[in-house]
Amino acid sequence: MSKISIPLGPQHPGLKEPINFGLVLEGEQIDKATVNLGYNHRGVEKAAEERTYIQDIYLIERVCGICSHSHVTCYITCVEEIAKAEIPERAKAIRVLVGELERIHSHLLWLGIAAYEIGFDTLFMYVWRDREHVLDCLELVGGNRVHYSINTLGGVRRDITPEIKAELLKRIDILEARTKYYTTLATEETTVLVRTQNVGMLPRDLAIKLGACGPTARASGVARDVRKDEPYLIYDKLDFKLITHDTCDVFGRVVVRVLETVESCKIIRQVLNYLPEGPISIKVPWKIPAGEAVNRYEAPRGEDIHYVKGNGTDKPERVKVRAPTLANYHAVPHMLEGGWLADVPLVIAAIDPCMSCSDRALITDRAAATSAVWSWEQMRRNGIEFYKRRGVDFSKVTLK
Amino acid sequence: MSELELEERFKKRLEEKFGGDITELTIQRRRRLWLTVKPERLVDMMRFLCSEMEFNHLATITGMDLGENLAAFYHATDQHNIITVRALTPRANPAGRSAPGTDCGESRPVPSLPTVRDVFPGTESYERELEDLFGIKIEGLPPGRHYPLPDDFPPGQHPLRKDWKLTDAYPEPAVKEAK
Q1: Does an H or E element contain A299, and which?
Q2: Which among B58, B79, B121 has CB closest to A224?
Q3: How many domains does chain A have?
Q4: Is B119 left (phi over 0), alpha (psi -120 to 50) or beta?
Q5: pLDDT, tens only, A24-44
């Protein structure tokens, strides 16, 4: 049979983000797969060099919509290390708390997507309904559902009051009960089993060789977790399990994530009960001394690493971001090869990819310094002009 | 027992193996080691770290513009410690010819560094970033598409170099149209 090459993406090959795969098919089976990235490059690293450390907190938070807290915590740990600022214990605990809430939010989001790719839409809707609980928790703590901006230089912005604590404990109980139900469902329901077992195989040695990280690596039996390997914040004081699975397939990735969600619930309870008294932040000078630091953080998708170099001013000399998805991409072609075309979206989704994270960086308009912010009207006018040049006229459309 | 015993041991092993080829070997703090290696020994260094010292995960490569030199920082980890290996390459050769010190007078484009893909196969996108964003030619990297810049990005422009400005690539920002 002759081989056929088809492009998959960049329009949403799995998840609603741009990435392109080149697939060579022999019938329905994948003979070879390649990955093309770079559709989402925004120039965050360049932009970060031109902003102050404080402004960068809000910029780096926008590297990713799902693991916004992960990136900022990783970045800010580097900055505080250069500034030699020891943040209060209570602030550390709150950072962990938000980090684990974020992990639950991310893993449940992923489980929903995976269910959707499997074709099990009931599960998708159930999971996303329950995910609202954790989004409410995040809103309660940080004031926002996605970009909670809890971090600031020298600590956190908001405290946990006894009322918030009580509410969080209540919601965590619900989340834990629901997640346990999903654990049973994911490991026993035939629909899930037949679609995930022996699909997207990534053997252990290959996972190590290709530098895979996070749940993708852990599902291949690689016991890597920055929280255990190099405990940061207060993780050395917490009791939780490092979840691994040895089936090396999509099923393993489902199991690892649901069990990790249960562990996160445990961590949150421990943190809330531990929460030491004291201030939530200290003052850090705006000018950070010259120096460099590199730190890692276990984001929901895996190891996140940031490098920051200071030059004695209030702006960093260099900020480097490596999101976990970029480390996992190289494993995807191996997972796809030998598999079936119908499984492709599921396998891609199984690394929980985040394209914006990986492509990061720029061209955040410096030119915008002169033109500032566009009004809604300006944007609309520009849009109408843009389409007019392409032969479509939207100018008759009225807005409410 | 010294608090930095393990780090001292790493330092000793690296000094024994690479001697004069490494400079600025410092223990920054617990779990963090920094050093600079001659570019021609870079691949040997990565192979040694990976196979002899169990630093089998190259977390990422950070590019740097140091003015006269461009640099790449290789952050290798054994999951508990990070050894950052710096390799420097001249930004430009004033004579516009081969870099000094290369074997047999063979011309070698400047700035350039060897690929470490043979040791860490998962690093292709990090190396392409160095090529696109810093203009460091990675020798041994197979031809491929741009990453992460768009395919039609003006050639010879490298946004993360300090002297690059947005207007270099986009002389008339589209923003002006709306005014």
Answers
A1: strand A291-299
A2: B79
A3: 1
A4: alpha
A5: 999 889 998 888 888 888 889
How sure is the predictor about A341, in pLDDT bands with cuts at 50, 70 and 90?
Answer: confident
Per-residue pLDDT band for B93 (boundaries 50, 70, 90) equals low
For residue A381, which residues of chain B lie inside 8 Å, CB to CB?
178
Do A275 and A90 contact (CB within 8 A), yes or no?
yes
Residues of B in contact with A305 (CB under 8 A): 59-60, 75
Q: Is A125 a domain residue?
A: yes
Pairing mode, if any, of strands B82-90 and B112-114?
A: unpaired
Listed residue (A317, A12, A75, A18) closest to B148, CA to CA: A18
Residue A181, domain CATH: 1.10.645.10
Q: Is residue A112 part of a domain?
A: yes
Between CA A369 and CA A196 the distance in angstroms is: 49
Kindly give, in sequence order, each residue whose CB lies less than 8 Å from that of residue A269, ignoring residues fewer than 6 positions away. Answer: A169, A172
Chain B residues with beta carbon closer than 8 angstroms to that of A19: none
Cis peptide upstream of residue A345 (ω within 30 degrees of 0): no
| Residues A211, B57: C-beta atoms closer than 8 Å | yes
The structural domains of chain B, ordered by start, are: 5-178 (3.30.460.80)
A325 CB-near residues (< 8 Å, 6+ apart): A301, A302, A351, A352, A353, A354, A355, A357, A358
Q: How many Cα atoms occupy the beta-carbon half-sphere of A361 within 13 Å?
A: 24
With an 8 Å Cβ cutoff, are B62 and A307 in contact? yes
Task: Give yes or no for a cis peptide into A215 (omega within 30° of 0).
Answer: no
Average pLDDT, chain A: 88
Cβ–Cβ < 8 Å for B75, B82: yes
- For residue B124, the chain A residue with the least C-alpha distance is A330
Domain of residue A58, residue span: 44-329+339-351
Assess if residue A372 is contained within a domain. Answer: no
Within a domain: A121: yes
Terminal Cα-to-Cα distance of chain B (whole angstroms): 69
